[in-house]
Design goal:
By secondary structure, the protein is an alpha+beta fold. The chain contains nine helices and 18 strands. The strands form three sheets. Strands 5-2-4-3-13-14-12-15 form an eight-stranded antiparallel β-sheet. A six-stranded mixed β-sheet has the order 7-8-6-1-9-10, with helices on one face. Strands 11-16-18-17 form a four-stranded antiparallel β-sheet, covered by helices on one side. Strand 13 (229-234) and strand 14 form a beta hairpin.
């Protein structure tokens, strides 16, 4: 398999719900006016707490400093696993499950924090730029590693990153086992031809900017269903994640999903905001799913992490994670 270090330098930011109106113009520009921005990597995810934006340096320039904008200090690089010359894998399981053992777990063991962004098309593993040498040293035995430079994939020489591996002799730190919440929403993972984006502009704007206000969401509602909507426009490909209620607002003939058209359920990770420095959070969820060959999409946000698993697997996943949470105490 090949591991590609993509030619994007990304920032991870958060916009508060109360401050969204200050960013309406740049967000509309980044989503709908591709010919007026040089941004090639843009992802916007709404959760009950805030809006998470992951975007490249060109897109980041569109955001004005504000008390409502939080910016994680690091620059992040997106990695992508390619097998058999295609981003999609022939493996039965899809999403982060395919890379749990080959990428996620080894990086966790080397104390590398990752930020995941699964889309309809592929899975992006974001790592801090300063951790790149450790990442390459950790994964070079398993992968042929390429770095994208101006659209060309250039083989990365291992000698460029010698001494990257953290041979510090420390025992692996047992990661915190975070609580999980399983809301009742059914979710869809879909795509859209970018040329038809104007056709859903009104609906998309309504869902993103007007569908709910912070005051409308009570703790009781949050336990039952959760507000979650994700839109990504990356290198010309669009990915959308929304619940089935939001999906009904869109024209059914424009959005497309996998041939099975399956629905997904969410596992939301974290009781308190997770932060960006803890390692092993993604591995904590993806490893048990990989062991059972259960597909999963995984979307990290500024405050919490979210895994999407097939609806028919939610009962077994719930039991599996409950068992997993008890293991550290039993050992």
């Amino acid at each position: 398999m090949d591991l590609h270090i993509l030619d994007h330098r990304l920032r991870v930011t958060s916009i508060s719900k109360s401050g969204l109106e200050q960013f309406t113009h740049p967000l509309i520009k980044l989503i709908f006016l591709r010919n007026r921005t040089r941004c090639k990597f843009f992802s916007l995810t709404e959760t009950p707490e805030n809006f998470t934006l992951v975007l490249d340096e060109e897109g980041f320039k569109e955001l004005q400093p504000s008390e409502h904008l939080q910016v994680e200090s690091s620059t992040w690089l997106p990695l992508n696993v390619v097998s058999n010359g295609n981003v999609s894998s022939s493996s039965q399981a899809v999403g982060v499950t395919k890379i749990a053992k080959s990428v996620i777990a080894p990086l966790a063991q080397q104390h590398v924090s990752v930020f995941m962004l699964s889309t309809y098309q592929t899975d992006f593993i974001l790592v801090r730029e300063k951790d790149l040498s450790v990442v390459v040293s950790t994964l070079k035995e398993e992968f042929s590693i390429y770095q994208e430079v101006e659209g060309e994939s250039v083989p990365m020489r291992c000698q460029d990153v010698t001494n990257g591996l953290q041979k510090n002799g420390k025992e692996a730190i047992q990661p915190t086992v975070h609580p999980v919440l399983i809301p009742q929403n059914q979710f869809c993972v879909m795509s859209l031809d970018p040329d038809t984006l104007p056709s859903i502009a009104t609906t998309l704007i309504d869902v993103l900017f007007y569908s709910s206000s912070p005051k409308e969401e009570s703790p009781a509602q949050e336990l039952d269903c959760i507000k979650f909507f994700s839109f990504s426009l990356i290198d010309g490909y669009i990915s959308l994640v929304m619940d089935s209620e939001a999906q009904r607002q869109f024209p059914s003939d424009l959005l497309f999903t996998s041939s099975s058209g399956e629905l997904w359920r969410m596992v939301r990770i974290g009781g308190q905001p997770l932060g960006f420095d803890e390692c092993g959070i993604v591995a904590q969820i993806s490893q048990p799913l990989a062991d059972s060959d259960i597909s999963a999409y995984y979307i990290s946000t500024f405050s919490f992490d979210h895994a999407l698993v097939p609806e028919e697997d939610i009962v077994s996943v719930t039991g599996m994670l409950q068992h997993h949470r008890k293991e550290p105490a039993a050992s």
